From TrEMBL:
A Pfam cross-reference name: Acetyltransf_3
Keyword Coiled coil on entry: no
InterPro entries, alphabetized: Acyl_CoA_acyltransferase, GNAT_dom
Signal sequence residues: none
Coiled coil (residue ranges): none
The protein's name: GNAT family N-acetyltransferase
Length: 189
């Protein structure tokens, strides 16, 4: 069973190692490093892999991930609050193996169509161990506790592993839109 951990500085070096793995595997969009350009009144929020080597900058990054559950945390216009967890290998203390987020609302057009309530990624060397499926299983009742009755969870059309993960957690395929499979999971809220 994977552990859902609040983002924390104790994952500093294993998080950066995971970033390197995602990038070496041609998956920079899943590396978790934020790059939100300025938009409207939002001044932008940009972190870099190199900058995150500095412990103070990593602490600022962690504070943003944890604070994103709060309404006042800086985010682009229209983006919603979200709770982030970092996935910890239960056999290796402080070993970052991925992340999962629960978006509290999907009012934004991108989230309502292709983004969904939940986003997750597992670093390449930790895949095929059930971490994503177990993390999603743990997040469903947390969504119910927040009063979210149904979760929209999406995946790329060609991502068979992610489709299996969603289906194993009760995901019912609604259809395809914008290059994504759209699934709904009833939370029991």
């Amino acid at each position: 069973m994977v552990l859902l951990a609040t983002p924390h500085a104790r994952f500093h070096w294993t998080f950066l190692a995971a970033v390197d793995e995602f990038r070496a595997n041609g998956e920079p969009a899943h590396d978790g490093v934020l790059n939100w350009p300025a938009e409207g009144d939002f001044p932008g929020l940009v972190f870099t892999r190199e900058g995150l080597e500095d412990s103070a900058e990593f602490d600022r990054f962690v504070a943003n991930r944890v604070g994103d559950a709060e309404v006042g945390n800086p985010r682009p216009p229209g983006w919603t609050t979200a709770t982030y967890w970092w996935l910890e290998d239960p056999d290796r203390v402080d070993e970052f193996v991925g992340s999962i987020s629960l978006r509290h609302h999907i009012d934004h057009p991108m989230l309502a169509t292709v983004g969904g309530h939940v986003g997750y990624s597992v670093r390449p060397r930790a895949r095929r161990r059930g971490f994503a499926s177990d993390a999603l299983r743990q997040v469903v009742p947390l969504a119910a506790a927040r009063g979210i009755p149904r979760l929209l969870v999406t995946c790329d059309l060609d991502n068979v592993a992610s489709a299996r993960t969603i289906e194993a957690n009760g995901g019912e395929l609604e259809g395809e839109l914008g290059g994504k499979r759209r699934y709904w999971i009833t939370t029991g809220a």
